[in-house]
Amino acid sequence: MCLPRVIGAILLGTCLLPLGTVQAQTLPAPVVELVARTKSQIRTMDMAQFKSAFDGNGELGLIIDVREPAEFASGHIPRAINIPRGQIEIAIWSLVGYPQAADMGRRMTLVCGSGVRCILATKSLQDLGFTDVVAVDMRIGDWARAGYPLAKD
Length: 153
Known about the structure:
Layout: H1 3-15, H2 29-39, E1 43-45, H3 47-55, E2 62-65, H4 69-74, E3 81-82, H5 88-91, E4 108-111, H6 116-128, E5 133-136, H7 140-145
Parallel strand pairs: 1-5, 2-3, 2-4, 4-5
């Protein structure tokens, strides 16, 4: 393989890294500020709260994983459905009863790889008028390291 192809493959691989593999301190300051500001405008739960509700079949409603399909397939929370963050505003409607009668109060719990995308997606759903949306502020890797269940497709 020639050097330009190797360099191209490395660059492409770097661009395709899931956001969950990027540490928050490596994100540009405007992104960190946006996430912090957004987090103050939505409801969140931490991993312990999520695990407790998950085990007790608590009211989690729809568990929506907003990572990309390949990330989801590599390991996701059991019972979660995959709607990538870039599609959430359009794809959510079929899950809440639209066009007959959209249930804007339907409970939704959003997860992702690092807590960043689900925070931003939660705000998007809230801005659309959904009233019971919660972001899980955790890293999926921490969930796995704790020995909690992951399903694979």
